[in-house]
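pipeline/complex-builder :: batch 7 item 3
reading input block
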Amino acid sequence: MLITRRRVLAGASASVTALTSGIARPAIANTESIRIGYLPALTGASSSTGIGINRGVELAIREINASGGVNGRQIELITRDTQSDPTKAVNGATELTRGQQVHAVFGPLNSGESLAVVPLLARMNVPQLHPCWVDTLTDPKKYPMCFRNAPTNQQIGGAANRYVVEVLKRKKVAVISDTTGYGTASVNAYVPMLKAKGAEVVYQGNVDANNPDVKPEMLRMQAAGAEAIMPWSVNAGFLSRLINVRGQMNWDVPMVGQTTLGSGQTRALLEKPEYWTKVYPNNFRSCCFDTTGKLPDRTIAFVERLRAANIDMSDTLLWWIALGYDGPRMIAEAVKNAGSKPEQIVGYWNKLTNFPGVYGDISFTPEQHDGYPDNEIVMCEANSLKSGAFNLAPGYSV
Amino acid sequence: MVESIVSYGVGIGCIYALIGITYNVMFSASRVFSFTTGILGMLGGVLGSLFIARLGMPVVVGFALTLAAGALFGVLTEIVAVRPVLKSLEQHLYVLSTLALALMIQQFTAIEWSTEPQPFPRLFAIARGGFDQEFWMPMLACVVVVVGLELLYRYTLVGRAFLAISEDNYAARALGLPERALRTASYALAGMIGVLAGFAGGEMLLAFFANAPMLTFYGFVPVALGGMGNNRGAVVAGLLLGLFQQAANFLVGGIFASVAVFTMFIIVLLARPEGLAGMAAERRV
């Protein structure tokens, strides 16, 4: 074979191409931070919840970043205070997604704001995780990127109804709420559920929460033969008036319902501390002392971390801090195992099974984005509040 | 049931009447319906709770400071929200200016005080009973205010000067009365009456920022029913409103109680647009 200049050049170029294509490129790690958009209500009417949840969120971010981040990437929490205002929540969500280009959003933390923000984030194809209870706030068809790491209103009402009918064995029930959207929707949803469980709803009513006298309503309930009262309201003034009137009437009827029944604000408005007995608000098994006075092991370890970080639990609720702690960790785990692109995060969550949250084990499927388990929702004793946690209500097994 | 209707009805009726009188005192001096009256009622509860329960002051000191704060807020209302719009009364700009000031104070209270109702302290260490201090305190406050205003208007020079500017502003000025100073004093007086309503009714209504719109609204009903500027009419109408509202609570209950109250309100206004105690205004044609 003749060695021509043309063949030498062709061979050389082929060799260079073969060599260079085969050389492995140096691995360049993705050091871009993971940006989590966060929409808490840190001021305004819903801020007590937001402040409690925020303590858990900040601890989780600190812990993840201190342990080296997610695959070497630090988490950057970009917070926009919604000021308990849905309009500001929408503005914050827009800025987080368009301006900051976050990888995922945690929040908003209350249903009123989420009702405005969820459809917006769905249009922007941003993965969203929120802890809001209104049933319609997840829908895998309408909002395929939106997930909930908390119970729905149906689950909350279902747990209270189960406690009244199956544990307390009360069949004649009075259901009362304030006239807010939440209150009326709760009564409308829970009354048929109670009836389906075989209970007789002897009284059903919506009352103006600012009415200073609820004695007429309590007398009606008593006259109707109510064996349990189920109040659905987040208004501490309204709930404390119901409890106070029950006490003044010396009526030994249990009150079973909304978590605010057990809040510090409600306690502060009671005429006598003993009026708080036989009041059983919703709570969560993970954040309740069992009959031996012990929290679950996972929660004990969490509380120790909270104490080590000097996080105050006395003026808030443990389950708020716990669910706040779980939120960023769920996002971090998805990024760690699948990547930070929207479809990777959502794809991971769609197959999530028993994420070991402090608040509860969370599982999702492509058809079910409500991840909180029914059996974790319980009732507790309102007057047993200690460091943000309560005793389980009587009747539950450990 | 009757005992509860009377005690609660008269108690809350007296609070409404006092708020109605607050409207009237401001209206007499300026021809302005100030929507800051409910704010004054709310502040009476909040400041009373702040001074006595939170800061631990003696009741007398807390009460005096609450009254002083009410007077100050009354003067502030006159300077900020009323005086600048007096020249264009016919455009009703005071609706916007007083409403804006009211909203600002309400939001400020929500942020700095609490968005949750807070307890109001027991003013007298008496065991709770059927006719409790939460009921008779507003009644006592109402009696003191009504009698005090009667004495002021009838027997003092300042009171007569108030009446003069409320009857004919221009004539009063022509006679050399210091109209601006009297108007400011009227607003200070109204401020004290407004906070007194909230302070006396604090145990019933609690120290809650959201009491403001409720009092603004229900406090206006005695004014409309009793006749604008008519304090006696406001007292009678306030008591009737409280009793009717409480009776409706017992008889129909729930949201229907409010419906019953406003149905009656509309019926009365249709029958007597000038109010129960008001007189039809004469107009030269």
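note: The mean pLDDT of chain B is 89.
queue -> next item
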